[in-house]
Amino acid sequence: MKSRVAATQFERRGNMSESAIPNAVFKDDDPFLLKFLPGVDSTSRELRRDVHTLNTPSNIQLVRFVTVIGATGTGKNHFARVCAGHRQWRKFRESPDAIDIGRTHPDGIGPLELYTDRLGEQMLTALPDTLAESLLFGHVRGAFSGARKDYSGLFRDDGYDDILLDEIGDASPNLQAKLLAILEGRPFTPVGGTSREKARCDKRILMATNRDLERLVAAGQFREDLFYRVRRHTVKIKPLSENIGAIPEIATAIIDRLCPEALRHNGVSPSLTDDDRDWLKRQAWPGNVRELEEVLELWLASGCTEQVEKLAANRHFGGVSGVHYSGKDWDTEVRTRISDTLDGRRKPAPTVSEFVSGFTSGMTSDVNSALRAWYQETKPTPEMLKKLFPGMQLSSIRTQMSRIGKSE
Q1: Phi, psi of 117 (to 5 degrees)
Q2: Do 250 and 47 form a contact (C-beta atoms < 8 A)?
Q3: C-alpha angle 392/394/399, rounded to 5°?
Q4: CATH 3.40.50.300 intervals, the chain
Q5: pTM of structure
Q6: Is CATH 2.60.40.10 correct for 2-238?
Q7: Which DSSP string do the residues of 306-358 spell out, in sequence order?
Q8: Largest alpha-carbon pair distance within the chain?
Q9: What is the pLDDT of residues 279-304, one digit of tens each?
Q10: In what order do the strands lie in the sheet with 65-69?
Q11: How far is the C-alpha of 295 from the C-alpha of 358, rounded, in Å?
């Protein structure tokens, strides 16, 4: 019961502006935040406030770790990078001797990656304990086979001010115990080291997860004491379906970031029409910002010669018109498709079953793509695969997983 109450508080805590850290004056006129966390809605404004609050000088020293939670594709890592980048940008602005590396850009602010060189990142999914410990805590020469020289590790590397630990919910039990020591400020030793190599982490640690930590704690898969630590300062990133008003601004920012220079040199200035904006706002976007970015990247690659809706229907979702409409009126959808077919605006489906499957092929494509990405990134062990698909032989699982999505 105790862990469930704590988890509920974790979910309710919301953004940093609602937590107990001191609030700084926030006017929402910061050009860096307006560029990389766009949107005129209250949700976007709160995210900008969160970064502003975290990066005030007093809070940089006070808040040593932050947990960013949200569904897959909502932009948790992007938020962490903006937070780290904004910290460096403020140094350029506040130091008379510093030269802002983005000053030559039209708006005086360069691409986000120019400001994240002081951010170290590590995904914790499916990393063997020894490798994860070496990457994070470092190792001494001779600690294991192949350790030919000392390695500082992210937590000791002087080149980083911020550390991003992605998929904190997937950390192994052994790694969770070591991370708890870091968050509590206790000294640690590198792999193979002795008390002479002990050090403390003086960096801000940003953690991200899409996992339900409440369930992990209840299932004994996530340490309760670590949970109490990571829930202290949290930022929750909402899905696009709960932040519809910001979608056009987010889309515009993505286009500005992705648009190839060659396209601009050819006189093309990609911009969304009112119809494009309305269409984007009508979609459910189950893949959130990641899915939105994929559609816009295809649109840019096509030369922006047609509407986003048409391109998404023809190229991204296998002929399905739209991207999983939110609150879809299926009666209207079916009748519209019938009308378009009879009027010659759509190629007919040869059979009734193919007509029906045309409405679900887009979702199937999304699931295949997500499953393939998980398999390639995670490289699951045989035990994981058998637990996930208990009704299949291991060889069959691997064969199907290697083939999935290749025909798309």
Answers
A1: -70, -15
A2: no
A3: 95
A4: 2-238
A5: 0.73
A6: no
A7: S-HHHHIIIIISTT-SSSSBTT--HHHHHHHHHHHHHTTSSPPPSSHHHHHHT
A8: 80
A9: 999 888 888 999 899 899 888 888 88
A10: 119-123, 162-166, 204-209, 65-69, 234-236
A11: 19
